[in-house]
Amino acid sequence: MGEVKVIGASLSSFCCRIEWALKLKGVEYEYIKEDLRNKSPILLQYNPVHKKIPVLVHNGKPVAESLVILEYIDETWQENPLLPKDPLEKSTARFWARFVDEKCIVSAWDACRAEEHEKERAVESAQESLGMIDKLIEGKKFFGGETIGFLDLVVGSLPNWLKFLEELGGIKLVDAEKFPSFHEWSKKFVEIPIIKEKIPMPDDLINYFTTSGLAKTIRGSALANNK
Amino acid sequence: MAEVKLHGRWYSPFPYRVIWALKLKGISYEYIEEDLSNKSPLLLQYNPVHKKIPVLVHSGKPICESMIIIEYIEEKWPQTPLLPSDPYERAKARFWVKFVEEKAPAFWSLYRSTGEEQKKALKDSSETLKIVEEQGLGEKKFFGGDSIGIVDIAFGAIAHWFGVFEEIVEVKVLEAHAFPRLHAWKVNFEEVPVIKENLPDRDKMLDHFKKRRIESLSASQ
Q1: Between chains, do A95 and B61 touch, taking CB under 8 Å as contact?
Q2: Residues A130-171: pLDDT tens digits?
């Protein structure tokens, strides 16, 4: 159904959502690796507003913003639907997707970057958001039900990113005891072949941030301060 | 169709987005005014995560977040579509909805702040308007084309309230000479009957937000 390209970066949690979605639907695509420190003219042309990845290019037309791209993919390729059919359930999935991006990811980064005197409170705040995700998955195999869906892809690499942020910030955010359902879900999720093939790994993230010197730029970074 | 209720607050832009969508589609609903300084048990039950309005309640089931509510309404009541039918055009519309939502804080910041912070808000809001005008609206009358759609509704609420804030802080940003197409768009948008007939009383708004600004600025001193 036309030519599909994904402009992405392998360690991005937003990009892998797109690749997983395409693979789940059996859509072939060309992957274009972007160097975020030296953005290509193609990226700037296809996403002039944000100049960010991921960008999906379908028959030459670009779509940006991972959640928007996921919905576009779901509407264009109907096999293995990602979003629930029922409008109310769909709204709930969208609500939690926004929550993950706007609260969980942001608060985890804030906790990582917090100064010593603010760290405890920032960690508590991040854990409050993560607790809601834990509660959401309680008693369920996947967020999508028996098989993975939209919300699974959105939450997707969060466990690995949290491990990375914990090391970077010298903090503890999640463990099996505190968030048992989230922990169980993440174990199952990363074992799915399509997911396992391409998921940002904590060690790779740590490596990237330390070798690129980015770790030093992050206030509150334990890696930069050699803790 | 079963009952529809909307929980809102008269001076908040977000419930108005939902009101416009409901009215454009001719959907009957009951409006419930919430006191945000004394949130009702019902609101806390319907939106336990954010405890905010608007909340749409359809047959007893709540939906939260104004733009998520509108997508729900669009699917349940397809008449007078607010989204294009083509997936690519839909993706473009959703992109712009997300963009204006993300940039909205700068518009509120112009009203909430003073000095350096306000200067930054002025700069940020101008930059956003430029991008929205050049890349979002382009040469179209409305973001939705010849008639208003989801992006018009999303940004229309922000723009209208921004107009009130500009008047209060006596700083004009969205001016015809600086943003001719966007300025024309705002005028046209606010002339659409459903929009015109469903806006809070301007004097009441000016009065309310002026008082709030004084209170919050003196509290932060």
Answers
A1: no
A2: 999 999 999 999 999 999 999 999 999 999 999 999 999 999
Report the percent of chain B where pLDDT is more than 90: 96
Q: How far is B98 from chain A (nearest CA, A)?
A: 9
Average pLDDT across chain B, whole number: 96
Segment A31-43 shows an average pLDDT of 93
Residues of B in contact with A48 (CB under 8 A): 135
Give the per-residue pLDDT at A1.
58
Q: Go through A101-121 and write b for each residue having 16 or more CB atoms within 10 A of its CB, e for each that does not.
A: eebbbebbbbbbbbeeeebee
Q: What digits encode the pLDDT tens for the residues B152-185?
A: 999 999 999 999 999 999 999 999 999 999 999 9
Tell me whether strands B61-64 and B55-58 are parallel, antiparallel or unpaired: antiparallel
B75, A49: Cβ pair inside 8 Å? no
Of the pLDDT bands very low, low, confident and very high (cuts 50, 70, 90), residue A226 is very low
Contacts of A58 in chain B (CB under 8 A): 88
Residues 6+ apart with CB under 8 A from A214: A208
A3, A51, A95, best to mutate vs chain B, most B CBs in 10 Å: A95
pLDDT of the residue at A209: 87
CA A54 to chain CA centroid, nearest Å: 11
Contact A63 B68 (CB under 8 A): no
| Distance to chain B for A141, nearest Cα, Å | 23
Element (H, E) at A127: helix A116-137
Structure tokens at B195: 């929009």
Task: Give the closest-approach CA distance of B68 to chain A in angstroms.
Answer: 6
Specify the pLDDT at position A227: 40
- Each residue's pLDDT tens digit, B74-122: 999 999 999 999 999 999 999 999 999 999 999 999 999 999 999 999 9
H or E stretch covering A61 = strand A61-64
All residues of chain A having their beta carbon less than 8 Å from the beta carbon of residue B18 are none
DSSP codes joined into one string, B37-66: TS--HHHHHH-TTT--S-EEEETTEEEESH
Indicate which of B27, B61, B68, B128 best probes the interface with A, i.e. most A CBs within 10 Å of its own CB: B68
Residue contact B71–A98, C-beta within 8 A: no
Spatial contact of B61 and B11, defined as CB atoms under 8 Å apart: no
A78 φ, ψ to 5°? -80, -10
- Nearest chain B residue to A68 by CA: give it: B91
Q: Which amino acid is at B51?
A: K
